[in-house]
Fold this sequence. Notes:
Strand order of the largest sheet: 3-2-1-4-5
Low-confidence stretches: none
CATH topology: Rossmann fold
Structural class: alpha/beta
CATH superfamily: Methylglyoxal synthase-like domain
Helix content: 40-55%
Number of strands: 5
Mean pLDDT: 88
Order of helices and strands: HEHEHEHEHEHH
Distance between the termini: 28 Å
Radius of gyration: 17 Å
Number of domains: 1
Shape: elongated
CATH class: Alpha Beta
Largest sheet: 5 strands, parallel
Strand content: 5-15%
Amino acid sequence: xxxxxxxxxxxxxxxxxxxxxxxxxxxxxxxxxxxxxxxxxxxxxxxxxxxxxxxxxxxxxxxxxxxxxxxxxxxxxxxxxxxxxxxxxxxxxxxxxxxxxxxxxxxxxxxxxxxxxxxxxxxxxxxxxxxxxxxxxxxxxxxxxxxxxxxxxxxxxxxxxxx
Length: 163
């Protein structure tokens, strides 16, 4: 469980508690289905602003480049080595964002399994990926503190009673 007065910090704490530490630098693998590409601009911008390097499958990479952001293409598993699972196994990927299409189920399964084995944060929805970016931003800019649940309750009660 992650709790804080702000969602991004609470999300980052929850990821830490789940032993899925959000990275603060490195390479992020992105592969999103066509219907998610419209939500890709703020995600790519957020990753670049935080200093990450984006690697993506060819279609997603082309879309990110059309948005004006740097991106390097990497093979899907079925396209042959070197591919994304190789990169994950080599330890060169820090975070995985993959919203799979039905026909890409086999690739997505091997990516997901390998990411889980390597204990990499893995997000399968655009909302989850955006929450991760906000959490990373909080990790980089805020000092986390540990507080008792009762302290949050008192603070929230005080906010509610002052309205």
